[in-house]
Design a protein that fits this description.
The chain is of the alpha/beta class and about 375 residues long. The protein has 11 helices and 15 strands. It folds into 2 domains: about 190 residues, Response regulator (Rossmann fold, 3-Layer(aba) Sandwich), CATH 3.40.50.2300; about 150 residues, Rossmann fold (3-Layer(aba) Sandwich). Helix 7 crosses helix 8. The chain is elongated. Keywords: Calcium, Metal-binding, Periplasm, Signal, Sugar transport, Transport.
Amino acid sequence: MKVKKLLSVLLMAGMVMGITACGSQTKTTTETTGTAQTTEATEASAGDIPLIGVTIYKYDDNFMSYTRMSIESAAQGKAELLMNDSQNDQSKQNDQVDTMIAKGVKALAINLVDPGAAPAIADKAKAAGIPVIFFNKEYPDGTNNVGYDKAWFVGTNSAESGIIQGELVAKAWAAHPEWDKNGDGKMQYVMLMGEPGHPDAEARTKESVATIEAKGITTEELAKQTGMWDASKGKELMETWLAAHGDKIEMVLCNNDGMALGVIEALKAAGYFEGDKFMPVVGVDAIPEALELIKEGKMVGTVLNDPLNQGKATLELAVNAALGKDVLEGTSWELDETLAVRVPYVAITEENLDVAEEAYGMK
């Protein structure tokens, strides 16, 4: 079964663990700590596949749940995974890394809680003589500067998502002059930012507005605050801003779709999306829930942050590294000067929803 089809089955079934692949079965066991899980691919005989330790900064992050499923499905017949939920706690993640090393993992795949912790994690891996693949959250100074020559990164170009979001917004704004409700020729907007200090959040916040203005659109910021990538926090912020600014808000910019989902809930409760009452909202990630909102006309667009390929690339590099091979052997990926594999972003609107649906295995 192809990876994208397997993900499709998982998404429809609402499963995140205990994957069953064509001709291969997996089993999942939970450690007494409740934070580590081992998925063993039994298609290969014992000793044929490496043990790889994986941490996810928190399991209930919308986007990372899909990336985690991609890693698990890509591991079928290729690796045994020791999975960990770091619960958004860097000290917990540090302890999990120590435990995985003690258990004899042959490589680490780390979705950092704090991007600044990369050198400390790299030091642990270096001392143990095992390679490490960081993914999704990148060390701000580049993975080539973490102090270890067996450390790589899989993710995206953070600035690219903000630029693409800005281009999407500028195009939509030009096509809908009625969105300038007060007719002053300016875009009055509110911004929901991701985690403070996160490279993606910083870049998306800066580049989206800079790109809109570069397209000749004057902007005015009414409010900007972190929603920590979280839907419930996004809902709370939008409720607060509606009370303060009401219909003066002409655009809602979200660093991710998770927060955008919360924004939409707040807007629906305030009577938007009924009759002529509309508020344009854009996000990043193109998660399936956001794609449905675009179909329903409740969200203008998003930017595809491809979890299938990020998870697949992470697993492929980790397996190669664990086996002592060139990390790119047998793959289609390329490394840049910072030792990073960059999975490209794509603007998603109602016109090309099929691109995102394909990436999430929905077609």
